[in-house]
Specification:
The complex is a heterodimer of chains A (151) and B (334). By secondary structure, chain A is of the alpha+beta class. Chain A has two domains: 87 residues, SH3 type barrels (Roll), CATH 2.30.30.40; 48 residues, no CATH class. Helices cover 34% and strands 29% of the residues of chain A. Chain A has five helices and nine strands; from the N terminus they run H-E-E-E-E-E-E-E-E-H-E-H-H-H. A five-stranded antiparallel β-sheet of chain A has the order 6-5-4-1-7, covered by helices on one side. The longest helix of chain A is centred in the N-terminal third of the chain and has 17 residues. The radius of gyration of chain A is 20 Å and the shape is flat. Chain B has 16 helices and four strands. A four-stranded mixed β-sheet of chain B has the order 1-2-4-3, sandwiched between helices. In chain B, strand 3 and strand 4 form a beta hairpin. The longest helix of chain B is centred in the middle third of the chain and has 22 residues. Chains A and B meet through helix 2, strand 9, helix 3, helix 4 and helix 5 of A and helix 3, helix 4, helix 5, strand 2 and helix 9 of B.
């Protein structure tokens, strides 16, 4: 009995110790009810949102925030503190490791500058590609099921 | 100017300290050297030195957002030369095939998502830009016989994205510059309570150099042989994971092998010889003997290619094509 209690205590400790802060590093992502690409969504998170990661399952992270808990692909989150603006960034945060300011480095601002210097480069077609070359998760799931593929 | 110089020193000292991780005396020496420049005091120098060292740790990859903007620029250049075919009924099919693979990949989500597009050129070619842009030539589509082969082409390109091979084409100096711009801003805020002024001209020049580096790899030099072999192996695994026939990869490579005498452009110029690739992937992956695809996959692929308009270079399509019959024999004789 004592051994069982110890094991339970250790499990609880390890789970709580595992929880860590992570930030959404994609423009938008659907938090799923299960660690599956096609699972139903429980919430939507956006670039720079802070979440608590409570575990790993395959290529998925169990995450939670104030109003929900679910799963995100590991590729959608980062341990780096993604800061959307320097406003409100404290000295302590700024001096800590792994702080990344969104929109710096290769960014929209740099793209604008690059476009000005390369007016013959067809960004209009890239915008069009991003607009039309996409399908919904439901479409893909249907396509996969009809084609006898795995999901 | 003063801040700009101090940030350059962050970079330099960061590189130096990155090679001596854990050496506190070296850290102190670095801070002392920086302080002697007179641009910052001893305390600030320690902070800057520390930030630079941390920066080195995050050098492994660009952020997802930065990869996206790099991919957009590469795409803009690709599409300036090869116009995309963006008819809704065709593009939906392409993206359904592509996303069925992405869904089971190790990078199912990128900053701006994945996009699969046919571009007009008779040359057999396919390429991917960082962040999730995948392009396949109409000449390549015309050479394929079924959905599983199309999936094999996409799986290879997805592998390059997952492995971040495009980003690896960027020189270390350019990569470091991009990363420092995003990361040392935090240090600048800590030291000065203001964001550092962005040298837009310099970062744009770095960006332009990076785009050229990726373009050169994609269209002229090609990736390293080891990167291509790794992409083939990942493609075979991804096809199997998604429920496609991994043998489709061998069939595609056989098509390339058969047509290699016709052209030295496109994939032929940027990839190892198809025969070498077949040998390599067969030695690393246990291909199943035979997989019978669901008939619906054949039907929807044929519907897709029938809606495509192929220019005069097209060969006869489907089973009546004698070259394709030869390929089938070659594949079955393996």
């Amino acid at each position: 009995m004592r051994v069982l209690a110890t094991v339970v205590f250790l499990i609880i400790c390890s789970v709580s110790a595992y929880a860590e802060d992570v930030w959404v590093q994609v423009r938008e992502s659907r938090v799923r009810s299960k660690p599956l690409f096609y699972a139903s969504g429980v919430s939507t998170v956006r670039y720079g949102d802070k979440l608590s990661k409570t575990g790993d399952e395959g290529g998925w992270a169990a995450v939670k925030s104030g109003g929900f808990q679910g799963y995100l692909p590991l590729s959608a989150i980062s341990r780096q503190h993604i800061v959307l603006s320097v406003k409100g960034l404290s000295k302590v945060e700024a001096d800590s490791s792994d702080v990344v300011l969104a929109g710096k480095g290769f960014s929209r601002e740099v793209e604008q500058s690059f476009r000005t210097e390369n007016r013959n480069v067809r960004y209009d077609l890239v915008d069009k590609v991003e607009q039309v070359a996409k399908v919904s998760t439901q479409d893909v799931e249907q396509f996969v099921n009809k084609g006898g593929l795995h999901n | 100017m003063r801040l700009s110089l101090s940030l350059s020193l962050v970079s330099l000292l960061g590189i130096l300290s990155g090679g001596c991780a854990g050496n506190s005396s070296f850290d102190a020496l670095g801070a002392s050297v920086l302080a002697q420049t007179g641009y910052v005091d001893e305390s600030q120098a320690k902070g800057v030195f520390s930030a630079g060292k941390k920066l080195v740790k995050s050098q492994e990859a660009l952020t997802s957002e930065q990869e996206y903007y790099l991919g957009r620029a590469v795409s803009a250049k690709v599409l300036s030369t090869f116009p995309p075919k963006l008819e809704p009924n065709k593009i939906k099919y392409l993206n359904d095939v592509g996303m069925s693979l992405v869904a089971v990949s190790d990078l199912p989500e990128t900053f701006g998502g994945y996009h699969f597009v046919v571009v007009e050129t008779p040359t057999i070619n396919a390429l991917s830009a960082p962040g999730g842009f995948v392009y396949v030539s109409s000449g390549f589509i015309d050479a394929l016989r079924d959905e599983d082969e199309l999936a094999a082409v996409f799986a290879h390109e997805i592998a390059h994205i997952v492995n971040r091979d495009g980003v690896k084409a960027i020189s270390n100096a350019a990569l470091f510059s991009a990363l420092s711009e995003a990361s040392t801003q935090g240090a600048a805020v800590a030291l000065n309570n203001v964001a550092s002024p962005v040298d837009l001209g310099a970062i744009t020049a770095t960006f332009s150099e990076s785009v050229d580096g990726v373009m050169e790899k994609l269209l002229t030099k090609g990736f390293e042989r080891s990167q291509e072999y790794r992409a083939d192996l990942y493609a075979a695994k991804l096809l199997q994971r998604a429920g496609y026939d991994p043998n489709a990869l061998i069939r595609v490579l056989s098509i390339l092998k058969e047509r290699s005498s016709d052209s030295s452009e496109g994939w032929y110029a940027t990839h190892p010889a198809p025969a070498d690739r077949i040998e390599e992937v067969e030695s690393d992956f246990n291909f199943p003997k035979e997989v019978t695809p669901a008939p619906v996959r054949g039907a929807r692929f044929h519907k897709f290619v029938s809606a495509m308009t192929f220019p005069a270079f097209s060969r006869p399509r489907f089973s009546s094509d004698p070259m394709r019959a030869d390929l089938k024999l070659a594949a079955s004789a393996r």
